[in-house]
Each structure stands twice: as structure tokens, then as C-alpha cells.
Amino acid sequence: MKVARTRVRNIDLYIHPTLADQFVRVISRFEDADAGRLERYGLKEPLAEGELFLPPPIGPATKFNSEGKWLVQRDQPKEKRYVRTIYWRWKQWDGEEQEDSRDIFRLCYPRELMPPPADEIFGFPINGEVVAATEAVHLPEAKGRLLNQLNVMLEVFGSAEIVRADGTSASPAKTHRRWVFLPSGPYKKGDVPKALTEVFSRVSDDDRLILSERQDFLVEQKPQEIAQGLGGFNDYLAYVFPEYGRVVLESLRRDNAIYIFKDSWEKFSRLSKREILDANVHDARILHTKGWQARLMTALKAK
What we know:
alpha+beta, six-stranded antiparallel sheet, 24% helix
């Protein structure tokens, strides 16, 4: 059954009775979707067979799929929480300009992150045509995941269909459209903002200064490669340090944390966004509060 709604709430209405105890997947055809809509979601070109892609967080479905959701616990007492870092300037009595950064904390209700499902789509061959498809899931136990997959596909493509699948073993081998390397180093101060002009042009002057200083510090540590995330990973840069056997994941959102992974690039690049945010996978998580540089270097060089 082809679905052409903005969003589905009751998945049971769209599951054919013959699929009640089957492996199923959601598919959408590139030719049925508006080209401008696809380009907005980073799909200017159709996916190749087996090529994985995490849609970027643009609408409600893709935002939840890529970022998860914070559940505010209003029945709990408020707690002091780091909110952001601001950059400020002032003049002394003699007219000399001074500048500094300041960490901002606020009293907030505790919150718990509902992890993102991080369902990806990939190129899947059907009768000689490559369509966009989700990973196969089994009914009825996977109805919740199927609902998320369907809503993501509807948001990206405008229409979708739940079809029968042979099972996960029939899926083609997959490659990843998650990261793209910046031009090869050696890198120097200012290279990252220059390479990511569009990203840095979307933030305020103060934010641009703070983000640029962070990238310059990481560049000073001489990474072998720097990769920019694509799709749902587009707010991250990955700094690869083979010397330390680690990858540093730096957020391009000013107030997000740094994640450090004790892995080679090959292993790290295969992680899904959900795995990246899993505390059992990363080696360290560092907030950008004062002294973050020293804490980063300690974690980076740890045995």
C-alpha cells in the first residue's frame, strides 16, 4: 500500500494482513519524489546500490531519528547545568580592550535523552531499479521501529510503501555515505573554517570565533585526516589521530561535547549515530567548559 501522508501515527492502518508475521521494509522511489525536496535532504543524486545514508535533521521525523528527544523530568528538583559558553569584550578605564569567555550555568529540571533510532536508508535493487529502502524488520515485534522508518521516508520522499522483504540476510553489501575528508594536510590555523565557509557563515560572530578557536586547537595537535559528517552527521567533524590510536569527534554546534574513540578510522567510520552517542562505545566525553583543552589532551594520550 502506497502511503502519501505527512506523518503516520497508527502503523497498523498501513500494514497489509499478509505481512503480519513477515520481514518487511519501507521503500520510496527517487523518481516519485520532488527533486528540490531530495536536494534539501542531501540526496541530489540517487543512492547507489547498498549505499547507506542517514537523513539530516530537518523536519520532526528526521530530527528525532537523528538526534533523539530530551524527556524533561519536571517531578524532580532542578539542578545546575552547563548551558553554553559566551565570548565577551569590554574596555578598561584606560580604553584598552579586553576579552574573555564565560561558561553559563542555569538551574534546570533534570532531563533524560531518548536515544535516536538512527535508522538509515540505502540503495536497494528491485527488478532492475534501485530504490531507497530501510533495513528489514520483523513484525509484529518491530512495529515501533517500522513506524519511525515510515515517517522518516515520508518526510524525505513525500510517499512510501511497506513491502515484503526476504530478510536481513538478503540485503546487499553496504557502503557508507556518512563522512567526507577535507583536503589532505598538513593542516594549519584557519584551514577548517576556510574549508567549511558555508557552515561557519550560518553562526553569529561570537559563535564563529569560539568554534574557530576550537578547530584551531585540534589542528595544532596534528591530525592525520579531518572528515566532515554528511546527512545526519553534518554537525560533526572527525579528527583522526593514528599516533594515539584515537578519533576525536568535535561538534560544530557550539555547546555540544567532544567524544573520543579509541579506534582506527575504519572502525569508527562504520559506527551509526546511535552507536556514537552510546556511552559504552566512546572512550571519553568532554564538555567545552574551561580547561577542556587539557582534559582533551589527557584523554587523547591515555594508554
